[in-house]
């Protein structure tokens, strides 16, 4: 049975959401072993869906992607 996590992140602007989505796209294309990740963008909301066969892989993937989101937001604020 697949384990799933869904994160819907809302940003102040669609531009900020696009910047974060573009920052994450290489990681989504690269693929994390044993995890499936889908990223979608709708106006100022970013949807991140992560699926895995086991909880530990799901947790690791969630931690990685949430850290990457946080890093992209902080870098965007500095620029």
Which tags fit this structure?
TATA-Binding Protein; 30% strand; elongated; 79 residues; 52% helix; 2 helices; single chain; alpha+beta; 3-stranded antiparallel sheet
> Topology as H/E string?
EHEEH
- Outline type: elongated
Give the class from helix and strand content and strand pairing. alpha+beta
Give the name of the CATH superfamily.
Answer: Alpha-D-phosphohexomutase, C-terminal domain
Strand content: 25-35%
Largest sheet: 3 strands, antiparallel
CATH architecture: 2-Layer Sandwich
Count of spatially separate domains: 1
What features would you describe in this structure?
This protein has 79 residues and is of the alpha+beta class. It contains 2 helices and 3 strands; from the N terminus they run E-H-E-E-H. The protein has helices at 14-30, 55-78; strands at residues 3-10, 35-42, 45-52. A 3-stranded antiparallel sheet has the order 1-3-2. The longest helix has 24 residues, at 55-78.
